[in-house]
Amino acid sequence: MKLTTPRAADPEGRMPLMDHLRELRNRLLKAMLAILVGTVIGWILFGPVWDFLKEPYCALDASKDLNGHCSLVVNGIFSSFFLRLKIAFILGLVISSPVWLFQLWAFVAPGLYRKERRWTYVFMGAAIPLFLVGTALAYITVDKGLSIFLGFVPEDVAALITVDHYLGYVLAMLLVFGLTFELPLFVVILNLAGVLSSARIRRSQRMIVFGIFVFAAVATPSADPFTMLALAMPTVLLFEVSALLAFLNDRRRARRPDPYEGLSDDEASPLDLDAIDAELEKGETSR
Fold first, then answer.
1. Average pLDDT, rounded, for the chain
2. Between the CA of residue 118 and those of 75, 113, 125, 164, what are the distances in Å?
């Protein structure tokens, strides 16, 4: 006897509520199992990952004030265990991301139209590189922000930086830079969806640029001028690129012929029933 899943039996993704819940449960279990396996791998790879994370701090002279070596402080019995567990879990999320992202996509995709799927491909194809570029920039600038504030420590005072505080600072920098680099992508998506026009972007351009600088000053953990500029300047550049893409997209739309041109407000437009039927069939087959 041939076994088929509800989605295989109905490729359009229509199924009873309980079948949706069962599929959601199965996909969540698969995603959680993948994250668990990734966390185990992250636990094994803790050594090189931790050396990579602490490298910006170890590059500073202040890191050697305690005993002549790069040192961070642990102020609790279980702090070292939870540090390793936290890093292993974060690394597990990264390692298993292809699996749980696929499970999420497989659950949502059958309910999307072909055009919506295309936008999703564009979004994911650009979001991941932008996030990685943002985190790479954050990693490069971590030591600059630390050096500015540790430079205020008097010469006869040793800076005792706890592991929790340092890890929280580094992770916050990586997330803030990575997520901020996604903001211009939303501008492009909203323009493609017809929600945000290039004319409106142009009218609000100065306020948006000012808002980016304010956001960079507030969102960066260190709030020093160097880190703020390191976040704000590339984001403004990306925003200008997204505004240009929105302008080109609107100009492409403007060149399309208007099917309602020449009709008065109270005149009914002619209906092409054959074309409507073809579009409906095309939409049904693409779901």
1. 79
2. 50, 9, 11, 42
Q: Give me the mean pLDDT over the 43-63 stretch.
A: 86
Rg (CA), the chain: 26
pLDDT at position 35: 92
- Given this model, what pLDDT does residue 277 score? 58
Q: How far apart are CA 63 and CA 60, in angstroms?
A: 6
184 neighbors 235 (Cβ within 8 angstroms): yes
Phi, psi (degrees; rounded to nearest 5) at 96:
-90, 5
Q: Are the CB atoms for 258 and 86 separated by under 8 Å?
A: no
